[in-house]
Amino acid sequence: MSRLRLLFPAIFLLYVICLAPCYAQTEAPAAANKRLFDRTVDELNFRTMETVYDKSFTRNKFPVSLRSHQARKQFDGFGANTDLKKLFQNYNDASERFKSRFGKGRTDLVEFERQLRSVLLDKNFEFFIRNLPRDERVALIRAEERVIKQAAAQFNASEDPAPDDLAADGAAVPPADAGAEPPVTAPIEDPAPQPEAQVTGTTTITGPAQRGAEASRHDWLDYLTLLLAAASTLLLAHVILNVLPDLRARLDGLAEELEEQRPDIVRPKRPVAGALPEDRYEDEEAN
């Protein structure tokens, strides 16, 4: 009986040792990737707060030990600047929620990088670094992009689905993005591109026949333009044929009335309309 009691723990220990590698193989990659994501988010948040703090306090430096959310929450090195302290506390709480963007739904390398890059596009991040000069903001973002690349190089992609499976549901929005706040600026790359089937279905191909049919259609603006052009032509013809001759006749009549009112001036005889000039051959022979 005593031998059986000693043998039972040995059998149980052997059973645990045999099953532990199988359990580690199925659980370790996803858990390790999640821990890597959380560590990277903490590193991004630390670098962001360090840059803003060092710019605000030229004589003080942000402690290197503040790599976690809880450590930064207990930090109180702001002096009498209560507004800056409140800003840091608010961003520290908001940036901690970045960790919930990965671990549910898709957990492949593409989603890993996409969710890390969304941290740099978050409106809270942009609001927090708004007072930095432009060159320092650019330098900060580039430094954090290098951190993201280093984390992606450490990602364990052994459980990632095949490329064909990713192409089948590439347009699906993961559940982790359901409660995420939209970024203020549009991302550099489209995080959820539309599948080719939807793009092909919504794109219309205009052939020669369709373009000819569209060109033959006229709307009300075309007809209004044609009507105004015809009215302008008729008005111009009326002015040339009726208004101008009548105006000329009135001017001639007015000129005659003025000449009649001045008898001291010898008025030349007005030639009769349609009369031929007088024959002066006799005058020329006499000369």
Automatic annotation (TrEMBL):
Keywords: Signal
Polar residues bias: start-end ranges: 197-207
Low complexity composition bias: residue spans: 168-183
Residue numbers spanned by region Disordered: 158-211, 260-287
Signal peptide (UniProt feature, chain positions): 1-24
Protein name: Uncharacterized protein
Annotated source species: Hymenobacter algoricola
